[in-house]
Amino acid sequence: MLDDLDRRGFLKLAGLGAGVTFASGLGFKADPALAADSDFYFVQLTDTHWGFSGPKVNPEALNTLPKAVAAVNALATPPDFIVFTGDLTHTTDDPLERRKRMAQFKAIVGELKVKTIRYLAGEHDASLDKGEAFREFFGEMHYAFDHKGVHFIALDNVSDPGAKLGEAQLDWLKADLAKQKPEQSIVVLTHRPLFDLYPDWDWATQDGAKAIDLLMPYKNVAVLYGHIHQEHHKMTQHIAHHAATSLIFPQPAPGSQPKRTPPVEWDPAHPFRGLGFREIAAKAKVPAVTLAEVPLVKA
Which residues are CB-contacts of 157 (< 8 A; sequence separation ≥ 6)? Predict the structure, then answer.
């Protein structure tokens, strides 16, 4: 789905559609002024919900994550790194079971050939214990890192029960951005959308507008997120927001039914339809990123 996406902006989409395996990945030859050495790509996987059981929506629940791991390992050119944008595990009230699922998830993704993996929590991982178990297995809830000239910022909009970033994290974001130049390429990683996509379904961040205001002075910003289990694109002025498909089950389109649940049921005629992962090609210089969606069924 494309939603008021400005194709003339710095971001170009490639490879949309179920028939695509994966686009050329780097694909920077059209602009020889950009040094190939600084170009790279990474893979976004999201909403794996390890521990979920629901035969009507995914009778292959135990196989989907290993299948995705195999698909990423089979990519012709290994990505520089992999990012999981939340809901690594399915929620459970039992703290022991939560940790068991996280351990199982970590063992499965340990089979990835690419060893640099960045993790974000989703509300299924962190809302019941404010991220305590997640930190034990995956580290800090928000952080920043740089890779080949691109600045990455991972934000936590799930551990607060009110779906907020909170003033302390916003102060941290402000301080981190103060170190960046206005033309810096910045990729923000979140679980929930930062904008009000559909608040009635919990598809928003209560104080996300404050983060967007802090990002607004920077010319080249893209936000990658999960949570809604479907591809979606939105512009807030010059800032691009992109949701990726889930690895467990698709969700209905925003507002298409009275309640968010039930999710889209499994179609035996089209197994794994609506599931997949995303490749993101990035450049240290603008235009900054190119997306390629990879349907799991074709991987």
Answer: 163, 164, 165, 190, 191, 192, 194, 205, 208
Cα 136 from Cα 102, distance rounded (Å): 10
CA–CA separation, 110 vs 66, rounded Å? 10
Q: What is the pTM of this model?
A: 0.85
Tallying the residues shown for the chain, one arrives at 299
Contact assessment for residue 157 and residue 169, using Cβ atoms and an 8 Å cutoff: no
φ/ψ (deg, to 5) at 13: -90, 145
Torsion of CA 287, 295, 233, 10, to 10 degrees: 10
Q: Which residues contact 97 (CB under 8 A, 6 or more apart)?
A: 51
Helix intervals (H) in the chain: 61-73, 95-109, 123-126, 132-138, 167-177, 208-215
Query: pLDDT tens digits for the chain (299 residues)?
Result: 333 333 333 233 322 222 222 222 222 233 333 344 577 889 999 999 999 998 899 999 999 999 999 999 998 889 999 999 999 999 999 999 999 999 999 999 999 999 899 999 999 999 999 999 999 999 999 999 999 889 999 999 999 999 999 999 999 999 999 999 999 989 999 999 999 999 999 999 999 999 999 999 999 999 999 999 999 999 999 999 999 999 999 999 999 998 988 899 998 888 888 888 777 877 666 556 778 787 776 44
